[in-house]
């Protein structure tokens, strides 16, 4: 392949620095190809045209799959051409075979930096500095200018939750665009639901515990106590109360206790010893 367009060859020794590390600054397309591959030669000018037109917003790395078989095997390449898009050290999208320019641009678009991303970065800095009003102003401006940027909405939800603006948070969740980070949104959605449940007032924990002792079979009281505990990040205690509510009446309020447990699992990243233990106990209770 020629070197007449902005791209670079990589091998096993240079891959980590040239692709993995570089992808933290800018997206990197990695084209796995071979000299004997006709479709590879057909795809080559299309990739170069797209990369050139984006003016440095994306890099193109080329891997000769015949010469770098270990790399091709490590990334599960089974046919040529295979093109993988790396961002922040990981593969975020990929395709096999010859694709039209429009499809390649559509794949790249969600990962290219936009002007609104710069406003978002400023908003994150403001939020971390405790300047929540400035952060929400910047994010609202970014959303107004670029409502289709999915990266803005998790940050805006974070700020709304920190400002206790549940009305705004619920409105954002009701109108999310395609392409949002589902893992992060699920965690934020769980936080919003738990905040909604505890928004009716600031109950006194001792009072609620005394009422639970007086009516230990009252699922609503146990869920109220669990919500209070979760709002204080006492997740294990909250899960214990919710699990007991499931044992008492799994169908109460359309399975509210089970749903609240799932929300806390999401809040905890759906991983870790606490999640594993209570997920197992929940499954045993339901089966």
Helical fraction equals: 55-70%
H/E element sequence: EHEHEHEEHHHHHHHHHHH
Q: Assign the CATH topology of the largest domain.
A: Glutaredoxin
CATH homologous superfamily annotation of the largest domain: Glutaredoxin
Q: What structural class results from the helix and strand content? A: alpha/beta
**CATH class term of the largest domain:** Alpha Beta
CATH architecture of the largest domain: 3-Layer(aba) Sandwich
How large, in whole angstroms, is the Cα Rg?
25 Å
Distance between the termini: 59 Å
* Spatial shape: elongated
DSSP summary: helix tally = 14
DSSP, total strands: 5
Low-confidence stretches: 1-5
Mean pLDDT: 92
Can you list the strand order of the major beta sheet?
1-3-2-4-5
- How many structural domains does the protein architecture include? 3
How many strands, what sense, and barrel or not for the largest sheet?
5 strands, mixed
Beta-strand proportion: 5-15%
Please characterize this protein's 3D structure.
With 287 residues, this protein is of the alpha/beta class. The protein folds into three domains: 8-111, 3-Layer(aba) Sandwich (Glutaredoxin), CATH 3.40.30.10; 115-180, Serine Threonine Protein Phosphatase 5, Tetratricopeptide repeat, CATH 1.25.40; 205-286, Tetratricopeptide repeat domain (Serine Threonine Protein Phosphatase 5, Tetratricopeptide repeat), CATH 1.25.40.10. It is 57% helix and 9% strand. The chain is built from 14 helices and five strands. It has helices spanning 15-21, 38-53, 69-74, 101-108, 115-128, 132-145, 152-162, 166-173, 182-197, 205-214, 219-231, 235-248, 256-267, 273-286; strands at 8-9, 28-33, 59-64, 82-87, 90-96. The protein has a five-stranded mixed beta sheet, with helices on both faces. A hairpin with a 2-residue loop joins strand 4 and strand 5. Helix 6 runs antiparallel to helix 7 (152-162), helix 12 (235-248) packs parallel to helix 14 (273-286) and helix 13 packs antiparallel against helix 14 (273-286). It is elongated and about 80 Å long. Residues 1-5 have low confidence and may be disordered.
């Amino acid at each position: 392949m020629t070197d007449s367009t902005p791209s670079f060859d990589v091998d096993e020794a240079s891959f980590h620095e040239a692709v993995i590390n570089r992808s933290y600054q800018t997206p990197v397309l990695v084209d796995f190809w071979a000299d004997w591959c006709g479709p590879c030669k057909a795809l080559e000018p299309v990739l170069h045209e797209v990369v050139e037109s984006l003016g440095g917003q994306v890099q193109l790395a080329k891997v000769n799959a015949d010469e770098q078989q270990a790399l091709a095997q490590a990334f599960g390449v089974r046919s040529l051409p295979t093109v993988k898009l790396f961002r922040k050290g990981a593969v975020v999208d990929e395709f096999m075979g010859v694709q039209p320019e429009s499809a390649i641009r559509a794949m790249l678009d969600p990962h290219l930096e936009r002007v609104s991303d710069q406003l978002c970065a400023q908003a994150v800095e403001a939020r971390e500095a405790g300047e929540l009003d400035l952060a929400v102003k910047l994010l609202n401006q970014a959303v107004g200018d670029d409502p289709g940027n999915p990266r803005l909405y998790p940050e805006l939800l974070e700020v709304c939750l920190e400002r206790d603006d549940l009305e705004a948070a619920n409105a954002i969740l009701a109108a999310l665009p395609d392409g949002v980070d589902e893992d992060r949104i699920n965690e934020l959605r769980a936080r919003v639901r738990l905040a909604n449940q505890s928004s009716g007032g600031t109950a006194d924990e001792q009072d609620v515990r005394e009422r639970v002792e007086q009516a230990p079979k009252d699922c609503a009281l146990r869920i109220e106590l669990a919500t209070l505990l979760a709002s204080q990040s006492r997740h294990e205690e909250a899960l214990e109360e919710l699990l007991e509510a499931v044992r008492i009446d799994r169908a109460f309020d359309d399975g509210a206790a089970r749903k609240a447990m799932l929300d806390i699992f999401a809040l905890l990243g759906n991983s870790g010893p606490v999640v594993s233990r209570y997920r197992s106990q929940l499954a045993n209770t339901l089966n």
